[in-house]
Amino acid sequence: MSADRLFCDSSGNWYTEKDIKDSLARVQADDCDVLFVHSDISFGLPERGLSRKEYLGGLFQAIAEIGVKTLIYPTFTYSFCNGENYDVRNSKTSMGALNEYARKMAGNNRSLDPLLSVAVFGEQAEEFIRPQTCHSLGENSIFDILHHTSNVKFLFFGAEFSNCFTYVHYVEKMLDVPYRFDMPFEGKIIDWDGASFERRQYIHTACEKIQPVDFYHFKDFLIENGCLKIEKLGDREIAAINEPDAYYWINAKLAERIDYFLAKPFTEADLAHKYTYDKTKGRITHC
């Protein structure tokens, strides 16, 4: 066995950190200044001799070494919606094992947003964690800052683009789509010094009877038009897209058809301002 091996896919192929970096280069994830990383690490069976921490460290290091100046890992904690405090040091993320690994490494580089926090590494970290807006998808939120920052990309590192691209909801908020509303949640935030304070935090969530859909149709469109670069890696895929392309095409598709990101057209009767929190999934059901 090689000490460089990280995992083996279902076809028996072994992958190293170099293989991962080569794949990241092929989707041009290294061609940006800021990289926002969604992840799902089900690439294959980890090398038997590696501990879980070593395996996650190898994946994390592979991304860190592609030369991007600022890396952002979403560390969202929807549990705030269920009345739990948000503790910037200790609240776990539901965004996967690699993002939880990043959260624990983040030091003071995790934001105080109790719903859509991020852990940030690199040159522009302060720009992304300093703002403390009370709307997780509105002006001055993490996605709004990304939109007004140059040379940004989104990376889907094993994560399926079609069901985890939260950025769509930011654009929906900017357009004030009729099928979403600003839902407030109240609770305590515990900051890096251990001090706690009350916060009313808003998120743009889907109305009660709205049925969102996974964005497979949007994914196919972006691939066909050369905007979403995609590469097989083990048993999963990695993909990358420029932020300006994402923003432009989400806008364009909503202008073309307001229900483009929904399972079916909506009526006035569907637009009740209610939401459901799914404790088993740790997230707002309709968001």
Give a short summary of the structure.
The protein is an alpha+beta fold and 287 residues long. Helix content is 28%, strand content 25%.
Give a written overview of the molecule.
With about 290 residues, the protein is an alpha+beta fold. The protein is about 30% helix and about 25% strand. The strands form four sheets. The chain has a six-stranded mixed sheet. A three-stranded antiparallel sheet has the order 2-1-4. Strands 6-9-10 form a three-stranded mixed sheet. It is globular.
For the largest beta sheet, what order do the strands appear in spatially?
7-5-3-8-12-11
The value of Rg in angstroms is: 19 Å
Q: What's the helical proportion of residues? A: 25-40%
The span between the termini is 44 Å
**What pattern of helices and strands is seen along the backbone?**
EEHEEHEEHEHHEHHEEHEEHEE
Tell me the fraction of residues in β-strands, as a range: 15-25%
Features:
6-stranded mixed β-sheet; alpha+beta; globular; 3-stranded antiparallel β-sheet; 287 residues
Reconstruct the topology from this structure:
Elements: E1 5-8, E2 14-16, H1 17-26, E3 34-39, E4 45-46, H2 52-64, E5 70-74, E6 86-87, H3 97-105, E7 118-122, H4 125-129, H5 142-147, E8 152-157, H6 161-164, H7 167-175, E9 180-190, E10 196-206, H8 216-224, E11 229-233, E12 236-242, H9 243-256, E13 277-278, E14 283-284
Parallel strand pairs: 3-5, 3-8, 6-9
Antiparallel strand pairs: 1-2, 1-4, 5-7, 8-12, 9-10, 11-12, 13-14
Helix pairs in contact: 1-2, 2-3, 7-9
